[in-house]
Specification:
With 97 residues, the protein is mainly α. The chain has helices spanning 13-21, 25-29, 36-52, 56-76, and strands at residues 3-5, 8-10. β1 and β2 form a beta hairpin.
Length: 97
């Protein structure tokens, strides 16, 4: 089954993030092996986008928080803890049930 958001096909989790932010992730995270000149150009472009859209960091944080809240058990392997049973000894030293 194919999944689309608007006219864009979503094939990975990164696609969801890129569509939500409106920018490619590589712009913010960089790419392996980029030169200093490429890094400087990428960071300049990111600064320009942030200047044009000052609420973008807050929007990204909200998206991340909602995703973590919705998928925390799967993301972090969260399992509910059970309370340990407290065993008490009576005056004679025998274990009470």
């Amino acid at each position: 089954m194919k999944l689309f958001i608007g006219m864009h096909e979503v094939v990975s989790a990164d696609d969801y993030i890129e569509l939500a932010l409106g920018t490619p992730l590589d712009l913010w995270l960089g790419v392996e092996g980029e030169s200093e000149l490429e890094r400087a150009a990428r960071r300049d472009a990111a600064r320009d986008i942030l200047a044009d859209h000052p609420t973008l960091p807050d929007t990204a944080a909200c998206i991340a928080a909602e995703a973590i809240d919705a998928h925390a058990p799967e993301l972090f392997g969260v399992v509910p803890l059970t309370r340990p049973t407290v065993r008490r000894r009576n005056a004679r030293g025998a274990v009470a049930a």
